[in-house]
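Run log, item B.
One chain of 258 residues. Sequence copied directly from the ordering sheet:
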Amino acid sequence: MEVVSKWIDDFKTCEERQTVSILDYGCGTGDHITFPLAQSGHDVLGVDVHGPSILEARRRYTLPKLTFRVGELKDLMDEGLSFDLIVCSEVLEHLHNPEEFLRGLRSLLRPGGGLIITTPNGYGSFEMLCRVERALTRMGIHQRLRWIFHKVLKLSRRLEHNKSLSIEPDPGFLNRDSVHVQFFRLRSLEKLFSKSGFRIVGRRARTFLCGPYVDALFRLSPGQQVLFRLNNRLADLLPLSWAADWMYFLKPEEAGSP
């Protein structure tokens, strides 16, 4: 979220704007991107095809400039909507035709607008650990590990007196039926952006290690904040192709450009 916020601030400075209109497509329950952006004063629309996720988002978050709705990309295009910025986090890997989807997002951008994309490395730690999780689930081991994790986490929260906190826990990813069908390599992903009519303005690694079990171990560690920072720092220092997940800031190619 820190990198996304910086890219948006840089965009505002470059375009000389106080606030911008933002579409968060594939927002889920709105916890990690949609709500924090609205808290910063932006006009944010969160859209997802998964009805239960949108219901949860509406239940949890209400702000004057924040709206959630169920919808397909085609619905927004048919309504003639447009935005200064579009955020699309962890969506491309679920799509059978990501090029057509990206062209649709491009049509929703106002002149000079930008697109922020995050997507996992198809051959990084996140995807590998997801395969391990599926294997352990088939053997009945994952369910037991999950039960142990929640028991230990509950105990640690009691010890830290976290029951007094008013912030609700993140409900997690609710749309469990949505599986990954794209497994990108760095080169193929950037080629996809070019074919879809975008140029890369900025790119960053998100984390070096990410996914089932790693996230749980970090959360249970007494030095979790240090581990999270180290994980992010490693992603910056190591080759981009080694990262678990990538972030991009894209702008449409101008008509007639080579």
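Observations after the first pass:
- Residues 141-159 form the longest helix (19 residues).
- The chain has a mean pLDDT of 87.
Flagged for discussion on Thursday.
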